[in-house]
Amino acid sequence: MADKQPHLNGAYYGPAIPPATQPRYRHHHGRSCCGCLFGILWKLLVALIVLVGLAILIFWLVVQPRSFKFHVTEADLTQFEYNTNNNTLHYNMVLNFTARNPNKKLSIYYDKVEALAFYEDARFSNYDVITHMNSFRQYTKSSSPMSAVFSGHRVLTLDNEQISELNQDKNDGVYDIYVKLYFRIRFKLGDVISRHLKPKVKCDLKVPMSKIGTLTLFRTTTCSIHF
Fold it and tell me: 66 in helix, strand or coil?
C-alpha cells in the first residue's frame, strides 16, 4: 500500500509573496500642453521683438532722424538795473535765435515755443516766441529765425552774494543770463505726422550791455537740447 501523504493544513511557510502591484497611470498630458503653449508664446514674443527691432533699425538707416539745432545769434541788452530799496529789477533785452532742421526727410512743425529768462537762478521774465496762432512748418535742411523780447520790471529777492555778483557783472559790462525754452513740436515724414514732442532747450549766455553809438559784440551761442 502506498504511503499516504501527510495532510496539509494550507499553511505556507516559504518566503513572503509580494502583493500584486497596481499599474500607475501618469497624468502628464495637461502639463505637456501647457509647456508646448508656453514655448510657442515665447517664440512668438522673441520673433515679435526681433521684427520690431529690425523695423526700427531700417527706419533709422533710411530716415536718419536728427534733433533740431538751436542757437542764439544776437543779444541786445539796453537795461538791467536792480533797485535794492524795493528789490525790483528793470530790464530790456531782445534775443534773436536760429532754429536749424538738419534732417533730409523730416520736416518740423513748431506749434509753441516759450522762452524764460533767468538771472542768478531767479526767473525775471518770460515770452511766447511761437504760439498756436503763428505756428509754422520748417522744411528739411533749412533754418528759421525767431526772436524773444524781454522787457519790463519784476520784484526779485536777491541775497548779498547775488547782489555782489550783479555789481561785478555791471562793472564788467557783461551779464550772465541763461534762457530756457520749452517747445511743442511735431515731426512730419511724408503724410505721417508724429505726436507732440516737448523738448527743452537751455542757453547759457554772456550778454554785454549795449551802448548807444557803439557796436555790441555777442558771440553766437549753441544751446543744449533735452528730450
Answer: coil
